[in-house]
Structure formats: C-alpha cells, structure tokens
Specification:
The chain is mostly helical. The protein contains twelve helices and no strands.
C-alpha cells in the first residue's frame, strides 16, 4: 500500500516541472489545483466508458488477446477515451476563464489535467500489481514513461487548441486530439501487443516492444518542448507589445498636460 500511494510522487513532480516552464507569468495556483483535481475525477467517466467499449463493443469486434484486440484497446478504448476525458476538463473549466489568455496556458492546463488523471491511474495500477517486485518495476517504468506521457499527450491538444484560438493557425482542438491519440495509442499498442506475442512464443519480440514506448516518450518530449518554446516566444512578444502600448498610453496624457 505504501508503494502504491507513493505513486502520486511522479505526477506531483511533473506538475512542478510544468509550472516552472510558465514561471514568467504563472497561472493562479487555485485554478491549477482545480484543473488537476478535475483531471483526477475524469478517471471515473473514463473507466465507465472504457468498460462498456471493452466488454460490450470489443467482445463483438476483436478478441482481447489478439493483435486486433490490442489495437482496438490501445487506440479506441484507452487513447480515444482518456484523451477526450482529459481535454474535456480543460474545455469545461478554464477555456472561457479570463486566466486562459496565453498560448502557454493551453499546455499548462492540459498537462495539469493529464497529470491529475495519471496520478489516480498510477496508484490504481500499483495497487493491482501482484507482487512488490512487480510494483517497483511498474513504479519506475510509469514514473518515466506513462505519467509524463499523459501530461505531454494532453499538452499537445492544449497547445494546438490555444494556437487556433489566439493565432488562427494550427490543427486546433480536433487535430490536436487526433495527434494525442496517435501518440497515446501507439504507446499503448506496444504494451498490449506483448501479450499475443508471448502467447505465440515470440519472447524476444515481446521483450523488445518496451523500446517503442521509450522512443515515443522521447519523441513526445521533443514535440512538446518545441511547442512550449514557440508558445513562450509568442507570448513574450505579445506581452512586450502590450507593455509598450501601456507605456505610450501613460505618457500621452502627461504630454498633453
């Protein structure tokens, strides 16, 4: 139980890292906490929808222990449902708030929602692990892969939605969602496909599949880092323009006097 509860640590550390990226003009702490808490609650509808898709729909489409079943579970059940639940938190809670006034805010709030989700999911996975050794392996693997993955996948949606909102460019909410599902689904299918590989006796191939989530996590980090740099550059330029305009507006009355 202690190891399982310690599964909150990676998500909390990742939240701190994301907050540091936005330290110039940070978002209100209360709003960040609210989004993270709502992200934690979004696990509930995700579990309900995923259960229906797996037990009712999935049983008719593809057996669970096949490559088709692994792909369906990865892209539709896990990635499709979870990314929708996480970004819905951002849309319903902060999208229309005045605090959401910069491009970087899309990454910050979306990552917060993703990490709230990952925090609960991580503890649940660790509690269901069958042994202490399995818990420790899962703790390390998820701390460096799945937990930051949830932040980065949903962060991509937030960035794309914010760019469309402020600059009228980019993939927008739907395009960002599809990008996140592609990353998330590819990550999960590499994990879920290990079971049919083991059943067919392809032990080496099954063990090597762990390299795919590792590579996808590195790729997602590069993508989100580039997004964050672009968002910060554009936000800084806009903040500078506003500062100059405000200074000129202040000087104008004094000149007239």
């Amino acid at each position: 139980m202690q190891v399982a509860l310690s599964g909150v640590i990676p998500a909390l550390v990742a939240m701190w890292v994301v907050d540091r990226l936005d330290r110039k003009r940070p978002e209100p702490a209360s709003t960040r906490r609210l989004v993270a808490f709502a992200g934690m609650l979004s696990v509930i509808p995700a579990i309900l929808v995923e259960g229906y898709l797996m037990n009712d729909v999935g049983a008719m489409l593809a057996p669970a222990y096949t490559y088709q079943g692994a792909s369906y579970k990865a892209f539709v059940v896990a990635a499709g449902v979870e990314e929708a639940c996480k970004i819905a938190v951002v849309y319903w809670i902060v999208w229309r708030r005045p605090e959401f006034d910069e491009r970087m805010d899309g990454i910050v709030y979306a990552s917060r929602a993703g990490l709230g989700f990952a925090l609960v999911e991580n503890v649940m996975y660790l509690m269901n692990s069958g042994s202490l050794q399995g818990q420790l392996y899962m703790w390390v693997a998820r701390a460096f892969l799945a937990v930051p993955g949830h932040a980065m996948w949903t962060g991509m949606i937030g960035y794309m939605a914010a760019r469309r909102r402020f600059d009228r460019v980019g993939l927008g909410l739907i395009g960002g969602y599809l990008l996140a599902v592609a990353f998330h689904g590819a990550y999960d299918v590499a994990v879920f496909a290990q079971q049919p590989l083991h059943l067919e006796g392809h032990e080496t191939a099954a063990n090597l599949m762990i390299l795919i989530p590792l590579g996808l996590t590195v790729a997602a980090f590069i993508v989100v880092r580039s997004m964050a740099r672009t968002a910060l550059r554009l936000d800084d330029a806009e903040a500078a323009r506003h500062a100059v305009a405000a200074a000129q507006a202040t000087q104008s009355p004094a000149s007239e006097a």
